[in-house]
Write a structure and sequence with these properties.
Number of strands: 8
Strand content: 25-35%
Order of helices and strands: HHEHEEEEEEHEHHHH
Number of helices: 8
Largest sheet: 8 strands, antiparallel
Radius of gyration: 17 Å
């Protein structure tokens, strides 16, 4: 499969393809959107793995209210496909972390998770009201949150969709969470860099990244495919970096 075909979504599972389109469409509407520079070697990654083609595509942006908007699509051969997306807020803004991950194996979605993870004591009331309108429990198979998952909110939706109807319902939740966040972000004003609440949000983002790095499944796949050193660098730089507050 050509790299251009992968970038354009050809051959992706419909839920991954639709979710990527949804993210890109809404990302384009964010104020002051700009591209975040990344080492070209980490932007588009290709490797042969036991005769299978591995592709990883990373799209990184920044915008008003957000220090990093990250969308990653990965595929190994014809079996494993992954969508990973995290919108990290600028800690001066009282905004949660938007995250969605979808894993498809042999063209069946084995895991799908979406959340607005608070980096304050709780979600802003306006955001909480918006997401309370949707039922996150109306699925056949609800998956167990991993033991490191105390970074997630009570509104986290972690499932294994059993049919196309449940896949579409999950996509609606992703859309509601994302659109609610981006709409709220437009009216949110920043605090100062040295404000105690800004520093607290930053520390919570650090904790979020540290907990995510405890997900051994991600590191093991990357370490086996490349090397342990490459996996650590990729995780630290691309997936879950948390730069000093003065840089944000």
């Amino acid at each position: 499969m050509l790299l251009s075909s992968f970038i354009n979504g050809k051959g992706l599972h419909p839920l991954l393809d639709s979710t990527a389109d949804l993210i890109r469409i809404n990302r384009a509407k964010v104020s002051d959107l700009g591209i975040l520079e990344l080492d070209p070697e980490l932007t588009s990654i290709y490797k042969k793995v036991d005769g299978d083609d591995l592709f990883i595509i990373n799209e990184l942006h920044q915008a008003r209210g957000f220090r990093k908007l990250h969308l990653e699509l990965a595929r190994i051969g014809s079996s494993l496909q992954i969508l990973h997306c995290v919108f990290f807020p600028d800690p001066r803004y009282d905004l949660p972390i938007f995250g969605v991950d979808i894993v498809s194996i042999s063209n069946k979605v084995s895991a799908a998770i979406v959340d607005l993870s608070p980096v304050s004591a709780s979600l802003p009331e306006q955001l909480q009201r918006s997401i309370n309108l949707i039922n996150i429990k109306n699925f056949t198979t609800v998956r167990k949150i991993p033991e490191w998952g105390n970074i997630f909110s009570d509104n986290v939706c972690f499932i294994k969709p059993e049919n196309t109807c449940e896949e579409k319902e999950f996509l609606k939740i992703v859309e509601t969470y994302l659109m609610s966040l981006l709409s709220f972000s437009e009216s949110t004003l920043p605090d100062s860099f040295d404000s105690p609440i800004t520093i607290e949000r930053y520390k919570r983002q650090q904790f979020y990244c540290l907990q995510q790095k405890r997900n051994d499944k991600t590191r093991n796949v990357l370490a086996k495919t490349f090397s342990p050193e490459w996996a650590d660098r990729y995780i630290d730089i691309v997936l879950f970096e948390c730069l000093p507050l003065s840089v944000n």
